[in-house]
């Protein structure tokens, strides 16, 4: 009861209960209040209407009122300090279920609140940083900001990547540096896969109870890593041996197929990468078996065809004309290659253009043949001769027919047909190359009427008119090819390894020396040449070149911005090579040192029937330097070239003496 003072007990307990007033009524009598209970419990009396419990008669009734239903004793939640009831409130058993119904929702709310707090508190603490328990290749970055995590990975994980890796393949070991492998830690991509931001309940639980293992992201320079692995493979690979059939002269030479073992490139890349990432420092690589594409059966069939190919000449016929392909020409033009279908077979291929080169003119009139663009020297200056299309032997058909003949056997006669034949060198290809004047020339002399003269003159004819483009490297052996009888060459003496022997095409070192000196004075780059064993008075000391197919070659590079036309001509006693292009230097000079370190020659006799007398000559050493001039001044000087000649023994023939 609000703002109530102490309650005094009235004499009449009902006198303190105000009753509602009516316009015409008398004060009613109220029944049923227990002794000592104030009427104030019913609220203020002013303006209050009469309230009758159910079953009570109206006021003024003669019947006594019915007994009121029992009600639970009201309990004040906040008892007024002005009223203190020393007696405990009465307990009513029928109120417990209602109280439990009110408590259960409250308990649920408390549990939910606890769960939310159990998630939200650690989630708030974890937000904005890497999820706790996160590790990258053993480096713990949990609880760090993204920036801190990136710096830690750079310092700790990148350091592991900088360690070299030792790779082992069988008994072979090698060391690979990280930069050689092309490996680099991609910190940004690694951090991007790390859980961050506001964590989910699952992430909070994982962060509190477990770990998150992440693989570092690594960038790989694919081309660099591939080169590293390929370089390693070059050392450790044991390639399979493919079966093949080749010719040594007219004799077929057979190589049977044999298995090998190759480095597993894919496995090697992964193993090397893993070794860098984990810091293991070692990687074991393996070789995988590799089988040859060819089979023994295919090789044996190819050998049978090769034997059949060189059993005799093959006659080509055209409109009553005939030309023969000699067995040597067939062997030089016939190869056996692996079948592209991958069935292990060896397929014969015939180079008809090569085989036809020495005999096509017999079958095709010169007026019909195609003509390459070239230059003729008129009054000492080159003049362009335009190219011309023509007709020639159908090379594709000849190749097909000859291969069919090898497979089936039978008569060795093949009719040929003509087809359109474009020039090998067109006018457009040689125009505008700056070929306008002689830039280097040299002539050497020889004795007439010897077998070597035939070879020198044949090589000069083969070389004449060849064009070397800007930046191109010229190889005399590649341009001329192997010297053969079909190509017009004959056996002749030549010094090989200090001994004078007779070989096919002997003596052509004379033309190689002539070309070398033309290149020397033309100012072009000497790529490779081999000095002669002995000095010959025919050639300038320190400026000669030996030629032997395929061991000793003459190579030079056209380092100018213009083309170079080679013109070669010969007589019975001399050969001349002149290079035409655009001059770059006023003068080029050969500066020779004094001869030194002389060594005496020995004398020997021979009674062999094929003995050839040789004049003795002492050995010596000489230096040659090429010097370039422009406007009378030295503008360039080559590195000194030193040549050491062996002493040449004097041979006296005593047979029949």
Helix proportion = 25-40%
Radius of gyration: 56 Å
Number of alpha- plus pi-helical segments: 16
Q: What are the segments in which pLDDT stays under 50 over at least 5 consecutive residues?
A: 1-5, 11-17, 19-28, 45-51, 78-84
What is the tally of beta strands? 37
Structural class: alpha+beta
Q: Largest sheet at a glance?
A: 5 strands, antiparallel
How many domain modules? 4
The termini sit apart by 166 Å
Overall geometry: elongated
Give the strand content.
Answer: 25-35%
The chain-level mean pLDDT equals 80
Describe the 3D structure.
- By secondary structure, the chain is α+β, with helices and mostly antiparallel strands.
- It has 4 domains: 51 residues, no CATH class; 186 residues, no CATH class; 133 residues, Ubiquitin-like (UB roll) (Roll), CATH 3.10.20; 222 residues, no CATH class.
- Helix content is 27%, strand content 27%.
- It has 16 helices and 37 strands.
- The strands form 14 sheets. Strands 31, 32, 34, 35 and 36 form a 5-stranded antiparallel beta sheet that branches. It has a 4-stranded antiparallel beta sheet with strand order 22-30-29-23.
- Strand 34 and strand 35 form a beta hairpin.
Write the layout of secondary structure elements.
Layout: H1 96-126, E1 134-136, E2 139-140, H2 146-161, E3 165-169, E4 172-176, H3 178-181, E5 183-185, H4 187-192, H5 201-209, E6 212-214, E7 218-220, H6 222-236, E8 244-248, E9 251-255, E10 260-263, H7 265-278, E11 282-285, E12 287-290, H8 296-309, E13 314-318, E14 321-325, H9 327-333, E15 334-338, E16 346-350, H10 352-356, H11 360-363, E17 374-378, E18 381-385, E19 390-393, H12 395-408, E20 413-415, E21 418-421, H13 427-430, E22 437-445, H14 451-463, E23 467-468, E24 473-475, H15 476-480, E25 491-496, E26 499-504, H16 509-522, E27 525-528, E28 555-557, E29 564-570, E30 574-581, E31 587-592, E32 596-599, E33 603-606, E34 619-630, E35 633-637, E36 641-645, E37 650-653
Parallel strand pairs: 1-6, 3-11, 13-20, 33-37
Antiparallel strand pairs: 1-2, 3-4, 5-7, 8-9, 10-12, 13-14, 15-16, 17-18, 19-21, 22-30, 23-29, 24-28, 25-26, 27-28, 29-30, 31-34, 32-34, 34-35, 34-36
Transmembrane segments: 103-125
Protein name: VanW family protein
Keywords: Membrane, Transmembrane, Transmembrane helix
